[in-house]
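Hi F.,

I've been meaning to write this up properly since the lab meeting, where we talked about keeping a consistent format for the predictions we share between groups. The idea is simple: the sequence comes first, exactly as it goes in, then the structure tokens exactly as they come out, then a line or two of notes. No screenshots and no reformatting. I'm using this chain as the first example so we have something concrete to point to.
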Amino acid sequence: MQRPAPTTVAQHLAGTAQSWHDKVSTGGPFPPEAGRYRLYIGLFCPFAHRANIVRHLKGLEFIIPVTIVKPYPKGDDAGWPGWQFNHPSNGAHYKGADTDPEFGAQYLHELYFKADPAYKGRYSVPVLWDTVTKTIVNNESAELLRDLQTSFDTLLPESKRGEILYPVHLREKIDKMTEWMQRDLNLGVYKAGFATTQADYDVAVPRVFAALNVLEKTLAQNGGPYILGQELTELDVRAYATVVRFDTVYVQHFKCNLGMIRHDYPQLKKWLAGLYYSDGEVGEAFKETTDFKHIKENYTKSHKDINPRAITPMGPWPDVEPSQQGDDGKKVGGVKMRKVLELEKKLLMEVGFIELAREVYKELSGNESLYMWTAAGAETAWVLE
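Output, unedited:
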């Protein structure tokens, strides 16, 4: 079958470093069919993790098979030759990784070059691959997080249809929180971990903890068990993929060590344990897609500039600390470093959490009576009485 032509201006432009942005849809060049598409992921990657969680929550495990790359080695600083599959030519079989059933490929980059022989970008996961036209449909995790919620609905029972993680009545809140969560938390840990100067690191780390502080307060305000209250949303998927890696990897490997989820964030700790140790479909979607061996060995054995001896720490233990009976469900934690609080206040104001920002300002000022809170339209400020 001939490869379909690009359907929108956003589709991949051959010979460039652009990503692929198409989607599976009825009547389009990539129609929904069971077994036609394959999702390539790494269990280590938080962005690929998002797509795999949605795949489970939607009940797509038998509609979209998955193929898992090895967590290391990755290659040189430019990412060449990139992620590998289990293959006779590259040494020992890595438990939990797969051989490539499509082409018997050794490297993920082979799929990229089959989709575009002149491709000039990076060879990342996730990749949604069409086995009929032999091309990439999409390799943008944020788009897959959204698209997989509806693309295969014609093949699913009524109870599984629709944007189950993006309900209409919560979309404004989800969109507003997604922007800063991606910027300051999901990408923020990487800005800290890959900082090449002290100044860049000093800027990045407080932003990460300001975002965690805001999530902590949001959970407390909404009462759980999920970020926006009683409904599981995309925000939980986005946050989980980073937070579940936080104590295990980001604290030591990326030097995000102002605090830990298990010690400093009781609301986030309870929320994380609730997802990870949950029974039924939720537990399967979150815990069963989380492999700490892949996660820890990827970061510690593929970043030679950060960890040149490639020694993987044993701890912390357990990987996710369970909520204990008697835990104070009303206690709100967070890192109280002044720079973090200043950024937290700014972030709370940015997203419109005015009263929460006021509470943070009280912590910063130490004397609330010296100040008053004013709000005018979109602008808010503290001023002297």
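Notes:
The two ends are 73 Å apart (CA to CA).
Residues 60 and 190 are 30 Å apart (CA to CA).

If this format works for you, I'll send the rest the same way.

G.
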